[in-house]
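Data card: per-record layout.
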Amino acid sequence: MSLSLPSILLRTNLPTIKSSVSVLNHQHRRNIYKYIRSIVIQKAISKLLSDRSDFDGHRTFTMAQPSKKQRTHPQYELLYHPSIPGRGEFIRLALEAAGVPYTDVANEQENGYDTVRKICMNQQEESADGNPPVFCPPCLRVPGAGQNGKGALVISQTPNILLYLGERIGMVPEGDEAAKYYVNQVALTALDLNNEVHDTHHPIAVMKYYEDQKDESLKKATDVRENRFPKYFSYFDRVLKHNQPSGKGKYLVGDRLTYADTTVWQLLDGCFFAFPKEMAARKKEFPDLLGTFYENVKTEKGVKEYLSSKRRLQYSMGVFRHYPELDRA
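The structure for this 329-residue chain is written out next.
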């Protein structure tokens, strides 16, 4: 969806275009802008791929070397929009933290986004390989894991994908059935706040531009910062304290990294980008969560390697957007 692509793609040459069509009525101008944006986006994506001198149509990023156990994993394929972290980042981060190889199809394969659209964004009665339709990306495709061991499994929804991967990639406590669901409930809660953060810049309509709903965005952002942040942060802080005997303030469930930790971390990291002043102030209120926990996750081997690599996409015009006027004064 164009609203989720980086601003450099969305804003190219639009000031000049606006002056050329200023005599048209409002609806005609909006239709022209939408048409032009679609052209600019497609050209920008094509250029992004063609400009990569190391691109050969296959995976070009260097993954951390997996352990012997991890080499037995299937080749997971992440199907998501190109160029943005977005909701796909929660899945990337879990896989990277576990050191499990995967393919980020839209970012790593020639015409990869065509594959994503074909599987995840069609209007057919199945997504691919006989799987039920999916609503939208992110999706996970697992070759050879389809029904009766045939074809590929295709599933969608970020928390559903994380739940599927958790035990398979070692991102939940091993052999602890209850802990598996503790991890999931923390991740689900973090993703709830993720949705609210998205709504700070699109509180009225997803298909309208931020500028079309700026007044409502200011109100929504104020409510999220002043009321929702402390409510959610307090919850995560209490989970950390409950797990103190095992986690030592570093982990939310158990004594090692789980996808609860990576999901909450990604949420917090995005909030630090979108609301730097607010988060700096909240750090004094929640030093364990925004200090010890947040900093520790960054030092975990797989996470540390990923964050310093080119695979880590920059925040731009996805879920987390920095509009200074929406931050604390």
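Known properties of this structure: The two ends are 31 Å apart (CA to CA). The chain has a mean pLDDT of 85.

See the next section for split statistics.
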